[in-house]
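I would love for you to help me understand the pair of lines that follows before we discuss the fold together.
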Amino acid sequence: MTHTPIIECVPNFSEGRRPEVIEAIAQAIRQVEGVKLLDVDPGKATNRTVMTMAGAPERVIEAAFQAISMAASLIDMRTHTGEHPRMGATDVCPLIPVSGITMEETAAYAHQLAKRVGAELSIPVYMYESAATRPERKNLATVRAGEYEGFAKKMEQDDWKPDYGPSVFNEKSGATVIGARDFLIAYNVNLNTRSERRANSVAFDIREKGRVRRKGNPVTGEIIRDEHGEPVREEGMCKGVKAIGWYIAEYGVAQVSMNITDVSQTSLHAAFDACMQSALLRGMRVTGSELVGLVPLQVMLDAGLHYMKKQGLSQGVSDAELIHIAVKSMGLDELGVFNPKKKIIEYLLQDEASGRLTAMSMTGFSEELASDSPAPGGGSAAAYAGALAASLGTMVANLSANKRGWEDRHDYFSEWAVRGQESRKKLLHMVDEDTLAFNSLMDAFRLPKETPDEKKVRQAAIEAATLRATYSPLNMMRLAHDQFPMLEVMTAEGNPNSVSDAGVGAICALAAVEGGWLNVMINLSGLKNKEKAAEIQHIAESILRDSRMHKERIFNMVTEKL
């Protein structure tokens, strides 16, 4: 798993009836390298199509711009009709942080996209949600009020000048709203009843809006009102959740259908547990659930951690195990197969990186190493040795956390296991990073060098790539060195039946550090900045010395215990 920032973009286009136009917009997205078009959902009645794409932020906003540009050229709002509220050819275009990026950073990308749309396409652009420039523009419905037919007049008001683009209405393309918002999870929880009314009772218990308070009978009683005549509400259990009950004839069950609009306030598993609690109080039982659309990986990992903890098991397990526990605990496979590769955004995007070394089998990786290509080489092999060190330390921590009779130390060892899993992922990332760094250096050497300017550009590129190729193994050395404290604790305090595994982990960690040092040194000779080279060499040698002492101490401890 990489640490590259990932955002999702869900533009809504005012066209749902002409397949050729929809396909042209979709193709504009597909042609941008590094972006994956995950879904195209057209609606004839609404005359509207929702597309979902994801990838690295810079690539996504490029794809969004190309799609908005294509929509502007093919859709004429002067002849558009449809049931859904709309104000432009591209009606709304939200950016959504998925992983490795903050909401503030995502909002900055939204402004970058909006500025370009306004300047290059002459479309008035308004910013909403977390990218809004003023409080009254946060809500999409407020910005869109008046719709296409009333927007020219609306823009004449001082309070409704666009954030970007011309202050004159674009009759053909209308106006566009661009912003940054939280990920919305569409989620249904299944009940052992066919009653829509009973499902609604659970929905009203859990949704943030809650239910209207009544005198006497909670369903038919007189509504209690405040001094202003407004209905008094009883707050629901889950913040940032909208919910309703319905009956699905296809499945023969009633469901609580939810939109989780703020997963930071209410997680997927918290919403599920709330439904279970409400259903039990009302004489029903939750039988399972289903995810509609896609979900970020972290949402599933958090759910898995939650249920592992409830079972009293160590949480330092693989992502695959956490996802399995989450699926089984929430019954996500009750109504159909739950395939993580098709439901989790990050896994869908991994298809674009099928050449990753870490996606290979052990046999495939060893065969790639043995080929006549200079990369992957010793740096990737050393990083893999570091990942093995973290894996062995994590294994001993998990065995210790789950050991019968050691329940009082469960949390202590589980915390070590969780840390070990994070280190394992980072070191696996370095397996690919070493090869990428090498390839970037080779690309720099291939740059033209005929003119003085070309030579200058080439030399700067070589220096930057050499620095990356040096820092890559140096960072790997740091990560591998960081495994020694865990391995030492596992040797001294962990499950005594696995002490040899901790010792092998120490050997692997030192192999990673020493292998990283060799790669640092071979790349240092190519650096022109000798002051920087000396600084890097000093750091690398310090890590090397300390790692050798750690390994020797752990090895001696293991030998004594054996």
